[in-house]
Amino acid sequence: MSEVKDNKNLSRKEVSYNKLKGLGEEIIEDVIKKDIPSLKVPSRGTSNIVYDDAKRYFVLGDRYGKRSLGNVKQIKKIGQMVQVANFCKDLVQREKTATLREMYYVSEGWDIGFDNQQESNIVGEDIEVTLGMSREDLGLMPEEDGASVYGNIILKEGDVEIDALKSGKSGYTISPTIDEVEFLDHDVERVIAVETMGMFHRMVQEEAYKKFNTLIVGLKGQAARATRRFLKRVNEELNLPVYICNDGDPWGFHIAMVIISGSAKLAHVNHDLATPNAKFLGVTASDIVNYELPTDPLKDIDVLRLKELSNDPRYRDPTWQTEIKKMLKIGKKAEQQSFSKYGLEYVVDTYFPEKLELLS
Amino acid sequence: MSQQASELFDNFQELTPSEFFRKNKQMLGFTGKIRSLTIVFHELITNSFDAAEEAGILPEIKIDLKRVDKDHYILRHSDNGPGIPEDYIMKVYCTMFAGSKFRNIQSRGQQGLGCSGCVLLSQMTTGEPARVKSAWEVDGELKGADLEFKMDVKKNKGMLLNRKSYDPKHTGVCIELEFKDVSYSLAEQGAFEYIRRTMIGNPHAKIIFRDPTSHKYIFNRAADMVPVLPKEVLPHPRGVTADDLIFMAKHTDKRRFRSLLTSSLSRMSNKRIAEIEELTGIDLNKRPKDMKWEEAEAIVDAFSKMDFMAPPTSGLIPIGDDQIEDGMKEILKPEFIAATTRKPVTYRGGVAFIIEAGIAYGGDAGRLVNDQRKSEIMRFANRVPLSFDQGSCAITEALKSIDWKRYGLRDLENTPITVFVNMISTQVPYLSTGKQSIAPEPEIIHEVRQATMKVARKLQKYLRAKKAAKEEAMRSKIFEDYVPVIIRESAKLAETDVPEFQEVLAKVTRRSLAELLGENPDKAEEEVEGEFASDLDDTIENDDNKSEETLENME
């Protein structure tokens, strides 16, 4: 087993704490100087979200709005931001987490409240963007479950050591607070993420983790932020190549692409979430043809989505362009499970080895 | 069974005006119980006003209405006017079509029927005599008479029942009449509302009214000037008919057509006379009594083809903006008021008129309906409130045609405003004998619209400013509420003491005021934020989010 790199949890906590404190200091300094306090909040309108070719994911541009205490429309937002920041600082300090919904209920007791949860969610995002941090760093947790990991890796959550190979057939469930999890040890060469839990269980049953010396990650559809963070961390901290296997349709393509290049909506935290080195394993349009897979015809909405993808800068790569065109041309899509046409073992015995060889 | 002509004419009778109106009292406006009493108030009040003004006295009227029984009242009405000399008292109150109001002059009443009509109604419904106490001045000496009389309808004159003399303290007339089949009401058409409106149109008057419940209302005068008396003006050529010309020709002392025309009509010069001769071929040096009907018709026809200056307007005396405002302030105690008086113009090419309009907002303006104030229209003609027949009236039509939303009045119906419109003219084109609505002549409608829209614009400006002030107060409150919280929370965040922030708070509040006044303190900052804010609202949910949702649905 190789030595895991030293973890950065403690420093992350400190950074979060100091950044939140700094927000307050910025305002107090202005007050002492008898200036009207203001905050710079990066704009996250579409026109300020740009695809960074070098980084290979979406980043925020340099446009920002200034929120002044002297503006009647902005003062309430500043008040809400400061209160949320205090709430988060307390969470970080006490090493607790809360969901956005919980924060919304706590805010009932604040002097400057929210009209609805949508408003509090947006202010949460405002702070993420302003401080350049993810909400997990602020102690605010998403409510959705993380995905499952199965394979030879040992993690440490607080005082508990977890062996993902000995956590039952469903594996280890990625915690929303994945940044606080330490990687203690592992003995794998790669990570293969699959879109559905059906495929995840198939791979466990066929002992794919042994055959390919891999971690298996079940994404459960669109990958949660914690899952994306997990994939990025194993890729960067453990130097493991990441492969993604999804359905052969525009939606499957895009689940993979959000893991690889990040989402526009979360452009301000993509540096923590995107895994530009991750590779799309399949199912491609070429696979549909080469393996003569059972298919469904493309629906109108699929065609529309494929056309959208072909204009998306994240799909500028010639391979993607070819695959999108090919799918439009054959007018067909296929699910991962369609390999079962050749028997339940086929996908692990034949398809994965062939594709992995192709990509390496 | 045929009758001879002589037999048929055995029953032939001559009908006096009194007899005629006894049978046709609706022609005097006496229809309905509420309306009848309102008309009585109207006749007595206008008569008192006219008399006082002609004598240069500020009118002061006391009205006392006692209820005897259901639909049965005793009315006592006294004024401070010049009084009526004894010889004329019964002529004024018992002889119909007697009076001084048959001239081309702006006046409240016109037909000289008013007072005698009231006596007639009283007598017809109760059989009781009228009682009049009059006090007048002769060569600096006050004289008084106290008469009780009835109207002899057959003879169209008074019948004295009792005479007393008394020692008056000041001039004036006091009349006491008893009525049945009338009803006192607080409705919009009722007697009380009539007085209230009269006070708005006549701010120089004072009325003390004791209602049937003995409640005493004192309507004080808002202006201390007796209105300038309107002058009689000669008729404008466009306003006369062939019959008018023949009538003038019969009763003139002029020796020639041309001098008849120049002396009886306004805007008639020698140049115009020559023009008429040219157009009609009539020799205008003829004697007036030789004028034939056909010639009169030809001349009237010529008038319609000629260009005349507008009629002189010296005969028109408007109430005036200031006085309208004073009157409305006194009665409606509004929070906002605006009034305007238009320049004189003509309708039908030859009748001069002036439109005045005012708007009162807030306070007691508007009608009170179940504790909620609604908008109301007050129509006037020569200062006299028009209470009935508002449906087809030029004023109502003009006001209805205005797009009130343009003036910030989204829900006019439920706005506490009173719209006042007065038409001043020597000939108000009433639609019916009741004289309660004005014919919708296009020129009149136009003027009413223009006048009202002008005051509506002022109201709009006021309402805007009021809204801005309210907003300002709200803004200040936001800052006062939020700034301390934010600085306290920021200090907690920064783990430091709360600094002194009064100066920053003052700065912020001042800045907000400047912003409101349009002096944008830092425009550039605002613009960036504006863009940001719209970004936030519109595009926070972008493509990824959509696809994520769709994916979730697919699962």
UniProtKB/TrEMBL annotation, chain A:
CDD domains per the UniProt record, alphabetical: TOPRIM_TopoIIB_SPO (cd00223)
Enzyme nomenclature, EC number: 5.6.2.2
GO MF term list: ATP binding; DNA binding; DNA topoisomerase type II (double strand cut, ATP-hydrolyzing) activity; magnesium ion binding
Domain (Topoisomerase 6 subunit A/Spo11 TOPRIM): residue spans on this chain: 191-356
GO cellular component terms attached to this protein's record: chromosome
Residues annotated as catalytic: Y105 (o-(5'-phospho-dna)-tyrosine intermediate)
Record-listed Mg(2+) binding positions: E195, D247
Signal peptide location: none
Superkingdom: Archaea
A Pfam match: TP6A_N
GO BP terms: DNA replication; DNA topological change
UniProt enzyme class: isomerase
Sequence similarity: Belongs to the TOP6A family.
Function comment: Relaxes both positive and negative superturns and exhibits a strong decatenase activity.
Protein name: Type 2 DNA topoisomerase 6 subunit A
Taxon lineage: Archaea, Methanobacteriati, Methanobacteriota, Methanomada group, Methanobacteria
Gene from which the chain derives: top6A
From TrEMBL, chain B:
Enzyme class: isomerase
UniProt GO molecular function: ATP binding; DNA binding; DNA topoisomerase type II (double strand cut, ATP-hydrolyzing) activity
Coiled coil: none
Keywords assigned: ATP-binding, DNA-binding, Isomerase, Nucleotide-binding, Topoisomerase
InterPro entries per UniProt: HATPase_C_sf (IPR036890), HATPase_dom (IPR003594), Ribosomal_Su5_D2-typ_SF (IPR020568), Ribosomal_uS13-like_H2TH (IPR010979), Ribsml_uS5_D2-typ_fold_subgr (IPR014721), TopoVI_B (IPR005734), TopoVI_B_transducer (IPR015320)
CDD domains referenced in this protein's UniProt entry, alphabetically: TopoIIB_Trans
Span of the signal peptide: none
Record's subunit section: Homodimer. Heterotetramer of two Top6A and two Top6B chains.
Protein name: Type 2 DNA topoisomerase 6 subunit B
Organism, as annotated: Methanobrevibacter arboriphilus JCM 13429 = DSM 1125
